[in-house]
């Protein structure tokens, strides 16, 4: 819902979520990147495993890359914050490994930590991270990033 909608409770969403979703609605590369992330997360929550090689995930990843290449072919678009976010989404959903620990020190009351199971041991593909760092440096560093929480996500 738009921010000025009378039934909208701003306490339900963060400024970064609203900004990122609004940006995704404008840019096909970011929109498809978020769909890719959501489909991977949905599969994990449904099946407790990652299906990174499924036909849907592979086709969506290819579409994100194609849309990103189209978008950055215009030099004025290449250095936008949304490009960094799209690359970060690709990088963070490329080399995920979610697995249960075989040895547990105690019987946890929580059988699954859901998002922590998925992102707690996330490793990034070095090539994606180098591209992201190079783009950030070309733009003048983290200080010039305007998207809320984007600089913090890159640092993390």
Q: Can you offer a commentary on this structure?
A:
The structure is a single chain. The protein is mainly alpha-helical and 156 residues long. Helices cover 58% and strands 0% of the residues. The two termini are 30 Å apart. The longest helix has 20 residues, at 28-47. It has helices spanning 15-26, 28-47, 55-72, 75-78, 81-92, 115-119, 126-139, 150-155. It has 8 helices and no strands.
Write a short abstract of this structure:
By secondary structure, the chain is an all-alpha fold.
- What's the SSE pattern? HHHHHHHH
- Give the total of beta strands: 0
**Number of separate helices:** 8
Structure class: mainly alpha
* Residues in helix, %: 55-70%
Residue windows where pLDDT falls under 50 for at least 5 positions: none
Distance separating the two termini: 30 Å
Mean pLDDT: 76
